[in-house]
């Protein structure tokens, strides 16, 4: 069987020689679109600076991304991934503090002195049940049940590259200021950053930066959905389902009753609401009335106040289900995230750098992989050059959620996204896992490092930019805002992925 492409790492795919030739011909027929955008007249860092500063660390970034992809560790269990990032930063002269917020894999790495303090966040947790090889067709990896379907291997590595580049700039210039890398575990349903915020890790930070892998390039001031989750555990009475059903009280009945009521509730909630669940345990044998069952719910809405009202209604369905089935209920809040508070001042600066640097450009091997992946996506076609398009600057409302939201209500925060995946690829899919383990994804990752580094250097060297961002931050929050974590005072759920 012919090898798909031996240059791709870490695995190859199978494709006929005829198909390869056809893909090469198609690639040659297209040219990349011209990228153009208007930017403001504000002084920004010389675009050669981030390119020059990130380039020496490119191999470290890509090697780190591959190691994290290979390990694919779940939330709060990212021992190898966190350790590698810490070792790399310590070797570069950063001061490391570990165990932040009571989380063994959370850490900060600081370099420099004095103000301003610019934070760069890095994530590194994977998702369960989405194992995938780095090939353009669905193929799980033996003994590897997890996968980086949200690209957090790239997230952590790209932020690492930015922090190393900013450290070099501080060293070269002798400029005052501090760059701090935040190693933030368990974004996927564990709210790791919330515990760091609660522990005061961001108290002295002037501006926080982050990014996220995706299928396009954007630095628009976007918000997200506030999000809260819980596991609902019902306990009943076991019995023989045929010989003594009247003596049983089915915990599974309670789970199903709750699900039924929540599904009726969907008709009577605000349009922006999102509610989803899975049944994590419902019994084993049909002829045994289950004495225990569990469901896991997420509830989302753009506004945290509305979310609180929705949450109370979902809790009421669980209580009613227990009452109606003669079972008992316990529930545990697992995570809670505020929506992201946008900052247009910071977003405009990051956008200017993104436009100046330009989107990633695929090489011949990347084009082959992109065409093959695209055939598995809706539409089934990849347009060469589409990976380089910069999305227009606009205020947006995302349908996703992130624990970056809690940071953004405590510190002026800005984020961006780059095309690390083939355009059209959705997050939390096998295609995202596959692409995230190839050199194609590294191009967008290095671009993110460059934009983050350039933005951080502007913030370190231009006090007026920090002041303007802080003024907008205070105005958007309002004078009476008091931060309260949506997950309350619970300890980090370190075992939520076990």
Tell me briefly what this model is.
The protein is of the alpha/beta class and 498 residues long.
SSE arrangement:
Elements: H1 17-29, H2 48-54, H3 58-71, H4 79-91, E1 95-98, E2 107-113, E3 117-122, E4 127-128, E5 146-147, H5 152-173, E6 177-183, H6 187-190, H7 192-198, E7 207-214, E8 222-223, E9 226-235, H8 251-265, E10 274-281, E11 292-301, H9 304-325, E12 328-337, H10 344-357, H11 364-374, E13 396-397, H12 404-408, E14 413-419, H13 430-436, H14 439-461, H15 463-477
Parallel strand pairs: 3-6, 3-7, 7-14, 8-13
Antiparallel strand pairs: 1-2, 2-6, 4-5, 9-11, 9-12, 10-11
What does this structure look like?
It is built from 15 helices and 14 strands. With 498 residues, it is an alpha/beta fold. 39% of the residues lie in helices and 17% in strands. The chain is globular and about 80 Å long. It has a six-stranded mixed sheet. Strands 10-11-9-12 form a four-stranded antiparallel sheet. Strands 4-5 form a two-stranded antiparallel ribbon. The two termini are 39 Å apart. The protein folds into two domains: 17-224 and 339-477, Aminopeptidase (3-Layer(aba) Sandwich); 226-337, Alpha-Beta Plaits (2-Layer Sandwich), CATH 3.30.70.
Jot down its keywords.
Alpha-Beta Plaits, six-stranded mixed beta sheet, 498 residues, globular, Aminopeptidase, alpha/beta
How many structurally independent domains? 2
CATH third-level topology of the largest domain:
Aminopeptidase
Q: Return Rg in Å.
A: 24 Å
Give the N-terminus to C-terminus distance in angstroms.
Answer: 39 Å
């Amino acid at each position: 069987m012919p090898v798909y492409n031996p240059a791709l790492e870490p695995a190859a795919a199978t494709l006929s020689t005829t198909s390869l030739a056809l893909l090469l011909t198609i690639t040659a027929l297209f040219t990349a679109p011209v990228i153009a955008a208007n930017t403001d007249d504000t002084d920004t860092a010389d675009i050669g600076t981030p390119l020059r500063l990130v380039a020496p660390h490119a191999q470290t970034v890509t090697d780190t991304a591959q190691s994290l992809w290979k390990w694919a560790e779940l939330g709060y269990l990212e021992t190898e991934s966190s350790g590698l990032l810490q070792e790399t930063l310590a070797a570069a002269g950063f001061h490391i503090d570990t165990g932040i917020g009571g989380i063994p894999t959370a850490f900060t790495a600081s370099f420099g002195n004095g103000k301003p303090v610019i934070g760069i966040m890095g994530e590194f947790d994977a998702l369960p049940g989405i194992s995938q090889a780095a090939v353009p067709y669905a193929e799980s990896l033996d003994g590897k049940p997890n996968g980086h379907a949200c690209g957090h291997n790239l997230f952590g590595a790209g932020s690492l590259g930015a922090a190393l580049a900013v450290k070099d700039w501080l060293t070269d210039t002798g400029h005052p200021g501090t760059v701090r890398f935040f190693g933030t575990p368990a974004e996927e349903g564990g709210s790791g950053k919330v515990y760091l915020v609660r522990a005061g890790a961001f108290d002295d930070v002037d501006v926080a930066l982050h990014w996220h892998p995706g299928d396009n390039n954007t630095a628009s001031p976007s918000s997200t959905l506030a999000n809260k989750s819980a596991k609902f555990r019902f306990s009943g009475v076991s019995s023989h389902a045929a010989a003594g059903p009247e003596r049983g009280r089915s915990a599974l009945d309670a789970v199903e009753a709750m699900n039924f009521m929540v599904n009726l509730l969907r008709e009577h909630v605000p349009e922006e609401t999102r509610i989803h669940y899975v049944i994590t345990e419902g019994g084993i044998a049909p002829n045994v009335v289950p004495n225990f069952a569990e469901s896991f719910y997420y509830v989302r809405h753009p506004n945290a106040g509305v979310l609180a009202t929705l949450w109370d209604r979902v809790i009421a369905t669980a209580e009613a289900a227990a009452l109606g089935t003669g079972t008992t209920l316990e529930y545990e809040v697992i995570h809670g995230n505020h929506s992201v508070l946008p900052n247009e001042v910071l977003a405009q600066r990051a956008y200017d750098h993104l436009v100046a640097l330009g989107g990633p450009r695929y090489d011949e091997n990347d084009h082959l992989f992109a065409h093959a992946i695209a055939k598995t996506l809706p539409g089934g076609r990849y347009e060469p050059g589409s990976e380089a398009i910069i999305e227009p600057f606009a205020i947006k409302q995302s349908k996703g959620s992130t624990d970056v939201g809690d940071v953004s209500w405590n510190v002026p925060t800005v984020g961006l996204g780059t095309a690390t995946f083939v355009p059209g690829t959705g997050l939390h899919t096998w295609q995202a896992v596959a692409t995230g383990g190839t050199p194609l994804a590294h191009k967008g990752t290095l671009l993110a490092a460059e934009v983050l580094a350039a933005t951080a250097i502007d913030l370190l060297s231009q006090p007026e930019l920090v002041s303007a961002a802080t003024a907008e931050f205070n105005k958007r929050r309002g004078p009476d805002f008091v931060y309260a974590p949506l997950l309350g005072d619970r300890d980090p759920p370190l075992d939520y992925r076990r």
